[in-house]
Amino acid sequence: MKFSSRIHIFLFLLAGVSPLAGRAQGPQENAPMPAQWATFRACPARSGRSAATGPRDAVIKWKVSMKDRVDGSPSVGPDGTIYVGCYDHRLYAVSPEGRVKWTVETGSWIESCPAVAADGTVYVGSGDWHVYAIGSDGVVKWKRKTGGPVFSSPLVGVDGTVYVGSGDGFLYALEPDGSVAWKVGTGASICSSPALATGGAIYVGSRDGCLYAVTRSGAIAWKVQTDGWIDATPAIGEDGTIYVGSRDSLFYAISAEGKILWKTPAKADIFCSAAIGSDKTIYVGSIDGFLYAMATDGTVKWQLKVGQGVGSSLALDGDDTIYFGRREDNLMAVTSSGKTKYSVKTRGDVYSSPAIAADGTVYMGGGNYLYAFGESK
What is the CATH architecture assignment of 3-375? Predict the structure, then answer.
């Protein structure tokens, strides 16, 4: 959840144990290193890690000007097309060369990160209370109304089921044709995006302060209470541990059975989503302006002051270089040992999270622009 969105949620705050079970899933659902960044946090487990290696010394390859803020995060389709939402109410499809291929207008702003399915269908939420399914040609296939604005980024299972949270406090499971398979209520609005484990569990945070585990049939298996809103998206480790920050200024590790394993304090609230490195190090940023690296036991390995605040969730490349947007107009790259690699100036505060394409290009919104960052000549 971004700072820019608070006014919308303050206008629309809503209030609301079986064993985990579900259909068997293929290993690709929890793959930590996808070939293409087709969904928020790279993969259904929301690990935030790509197989591609990003720029060693980045420059802006191109930027596309839009009519309002680009606070949403981009995704990249199988053919390299970049999809990103904008506050001008439009979803944009942009070619890898920086040409706008098409736009689709919704009824309100888009902060939801698009999810691109294997067949090229793009799923995205809008502040108009709808989830949209859009073909790769820009034709709307269907839209499904929920009971509130949709900040949450959709997640597509291997069977085509689309999972997404809404400001009405419900987590929805939508069939590929847009019909509602089920919905399950939490105690308040959902800005967090769902994460999917190989064992069948769906994890999502709520503004009632709880992390929920939901079965594939739509039953709440357990919930873990924190002392603040959970706007961050959970990241699932290879051993099934769930990592998530809360607006109580604590970062949590929670077992697949719903037990708090540890919690590590930050100096301010955490609403950004964490990323998990190849050596299982967990990285997360906070609005205190620090980037944290934590071991699997919660020990802080290092912390780095990076500015006024980390505005975006983190992305890791194949070398475990950490990419993120600072609130004060920069893409930053930091090594896995906590050394600043470089920063690239953008225009406007950055709340969009980076996406790393298969060719190593990094895409990110900033101000009224979508940026492509590539290797310095």
Answer: 7 Propeller (2.130)
